Predict the 3D structure of the following.
Amino acid sequence: MYGPILEGRGEFGEWRDAARAALAGDIPPERIDWRLRGDMAGLLDFAGDPLPPFKPGTAEISVPASFVALAQAVICHSDPGRFALLYRLLWRLRQDRALLQFKSDPDVAEARLLEKSVRRDCHKMTAFVRFKELPLPQGQGGRRRFIAWFEPDHFIVERTAPFFQRRFTDMDWLIATPHGSARWDGTALQTSRQPVEKPDLTDETDELWRTYYANIFNPARLKIKAMTAEMPKKYWKNLPEADLIPDLILGAEARVLEMAAKAASQPQPFHHRLQAAAAAREMPQPVPDGTLTSLAREASHCTRCPLHCNATQTVFGAGPENAKIMIVGEQPGDHEDLAGKPFVGPAGQLFDRTLAEVGIERNSLYVTNAVKHFKYESRGKRRIHQRPNAGEVEQCRWWLNQEIALVRPKLIVAMGATAHYALTGSKEKVTELRGRPLPIDEGRTLFITVHPSYLLRIPDAQRKDMEMMKFKNDMLYVSKFE
């Protein structure tokens, strides 16, 4: 049995060197009993052999970069079993380099939990460190000096210190913890893994901070579970405002009632100016019923389906009320949702260029969509288009039918499967119906083609050119109805 003894205070290098020697000696995980130097009780009856020395030039295992990042975080955890866990993962990575991708693997799952705990501890340290200013030595000037005390769960001081160096680079400071310390003097960032005793940090600014906290505390928005989740009670003892929290919570209901009783009953001093400005504005002219304008205004408040909850606005149709040709697309995209107009994004620009090539004036067409709200999925800062489902199309069909009834076009062009379904209720493939004029109600003609966005997604240049030519030919047929 081998028994490496480590300091275990967050230094990745000491475990890496021991693991490298064990791996070079082909020692399996079950033959290593990792011990901490500070665990004197455990060392008294421990007689494990030292690991064989690592010989430079020995072939080393190549590990994924993700394992190194994971190990550097896990080493900072305070769990004594972390060294054995990491060595098991390292041993298994020799056979399976994709091991870390299997989140259900017990060792991988445990390591990820330790990593998450370390990340959370780092986040809490950046949130709850409270600096106190120290007086400058008598008769001396120079940079202001600050000190802070924090009690992390893990050995994260060295890992988190660069954040404070970047954030508070214009002052000298010391952060002391039971797991080590960090110091910045304006030139060099120094860290130590030696434990530090808690200094006396009480000063007159504590009362100012408590006064500030008591005044910004909003009892009407009190959510105890959320507050204790973001500010766990174990941190309260080192926060000057924490001794106010129990009384503030107990008195929250009474304070809400008091705030309601003191609600303003008289207008603010500037109220008359707001009223005068409102009276000076021109009142909007009433819109006669039975027009596209009145229909669009009504649609702006549509709540027929859940899509209105996330969309910026209703994107109604645009064009002359007596247009001979109506174009029906699928739904507004990201650009249309922001602009409030149909077909203004990349697909709309391609559509406009094709119209110009075949001699059709865009402003002679009535352009609309089967669905009036943008359906999307958020991915970071991007909004990714999602196809509307049948229920959403059917809910929006009422608006489309009203548009058709008011415009009374001779030709309706359905661009894509969604538009075709909204107009006919049929789910036949566009490829089987494309390019064929179909008679529909009241002597109108339905013509089916692809949506311009389809053309933008074709990766092959030759096939894209061919599809563009077919779309241009479709638009040439449409031009005959002008």
User: Anything to note?
Assistant: Residues 106-128 form the longest helix (23 residues). The chain has a mean pLDDT of 88.
